[in-house]
Amino acid sequence: MTPDLDPFAVEVIRHGLSAAAEEMSLVMTRSARSPLLREAGDLSSAIMDAEGGLVGQGRDIPIHLGAMAYTIRELLKVYPAGRLREGDALIYNLGILGGNHLNDVKVARPIYVDGRLIAFALSLAHWPDVGGTWPGSYYATAMDTYQDGMRIPPVLIATRDGVQPGAMAMILHNVRDPVSCEGDMLAQIASTAAAERRVRDLCAQHGTETFIAAMSRLHDLSEAEMRAAIASLPDGSWEGEDWVDGGDPGTGPARIHVRLTIAGDEATIDLSGSCDRVNSFCNCTPYIARSAVIYAMRVLSGREMQQNEGALRPLTIVTRPGSIFEPGWNAAVAAGNHETSGRIVDAMFKAMEHVIPRNVSAGGGTTAGMLTFSERMPDASWRMLYEVHAGGEGARHDRAGSPAVRVHLTNTANTPAEMIEATYAIRVERQAIRRGSGGAGEHAGGDGLVRAYRVLAKEMLLTTCCERMVVPPYGMKGGAEGMPFAITLERDGRTEALPGKGNLVLRQGDLVTIETCGGGGFGRVA
């Protein structure tokens, strides 16, 4: 029987779940080995109920968390709860299981109280390498998922007896930096164990039945909040589009199209008008597409609200089989995770520019702005620096955009120059604001940044993965576009432009400089 729920107890449990997820992320940043996790924080943590419904999350990365809302539900379809035991931890990275790209590896732990499965803890971490064609597992011209990297089906990485050496060995033999990988994997396992302790504490404090009922109530509250938010928007149907800089290699920009329909307290977001699957790593799993939509709907509402399973109920999200957002299980999706997904948000904002202009912003640096430097070590392993670069924020109706800040779906930090120079054969020779790169307007867009890397090793491999090099951040209500990204290579006194998505070999003494985009302006200059 469901107990009568004290609303104060529900709120205490909600905060307890959030705190448990926050503790998971803290365990990761304190114990992971890769600078990408320790310094940049490219990770996310969440708590799900026994059916896989998201109920608690850390203040992590929106594009991760939206997709994680589907992850355990999809996992349970292929790995039923009856096969799980107390103390188990599963590891996997398949996109078809509510997933992202292959670098985003998940560790899921079922949580039992008195022998009863009541919740799951889920840790997601971006591994700097998961095998594949190119170090760092981003290959710009990848034709399928096998070139992206190693595919890990759900497998037990730990049980009550400890870490499973066979599974660990299989994984470590297929990555280029096994020492860092092992440390990151153990950190994920430890983070889910921390969440298990906190959930059990909540059950001991409030009672298991109350805890389970509170999770159900939290779903209902989120649904009510989302319905109220949608109902506050005008009814109607609007279209918006944006463009991925390059779809198939050597071709022009690829179209991203959104039709947003509001009817009462429900919304339909139709992405089926977007382009077909592309022959590169810019495809996107349908779960990442849904994650982008969910984020954009929360922002468009202009309201603060809880994010869990219930918030999905009033939304109908349509993708098309064979499209860039439903490309099939064997598509390459490494860049689509954080590049193509951002175009959904921009297209939705454009659709609503003249409907709710106070709830949207002009275009910003909605791209990872990624450079990956990979160096082969004397023991034949690889050391990889996966570095992201913020652009300018788009201006809003009431203020200018901020300079050099991550916007929308990703909020990872940069790696400090001191950490880079202490860990890699690289010298950071310049770091500055890119003055004047923001678009003009009544309120100007924020400026981007400039960072320059000098290669000190005899040889390094470079991956570039940036949007907003061909199609710049847009202005709104008459504001001007921001300046696009630019990447250059200086070698032997000559400077050449590098592509936004590519792989190349660097030599000692090369200088790679990235200049990130400025944000778009808002409103015409008086």
Structural write-up:
This protein has 2 domains: 7-224, no CATH class; 361-526, no CATH class. Helix 1 (7-31) packs antiparallel against helix 6 and helix 1 (7-31) crosses helix 7 (208-231). The strands form 4 sheets. A 7-stranded antiparallel beta sheet has the order 2-1-5-4-3-6-7. Strands 14-15-20-17-18 form a 5-stranded antiparallel beta sheet, with helices on one face. Strand 12 and strand 13 (382-387) form a beta hairpin. It is of the alpha+beta class. The protein contains 10 helices and 20 strands.
Contiguous low-pLDDT stretches (5 residues minimum) are none
Task: Give the N-terminus to C-terminus distance in angstroms.
Answer: 65 Å
Structural class: alpha+beta
Order of helices and strands: HHEEHEEEHEEHHHEEEHEHEEHEEEEEEE
The fraction of residues assigned to DSSP E strands is: 15-25%
Q: What percent of residues adopt helix (DSSP H or I)?
A: 25-40%
The total tally of domains equals 2
**Total E-strand runs:** 20
Q: Give the overall shape.
A: globular
Rounded to an integer, what's the Rg over CA atoms? 23 Å
Strand order of the largest sheet: 2-1-5-4-3-6-7
Summarize the main sheet: 7 strands, antiparallel
Count helical runs: 10
- Report mean pLDDT, rounded to a whole number: 92
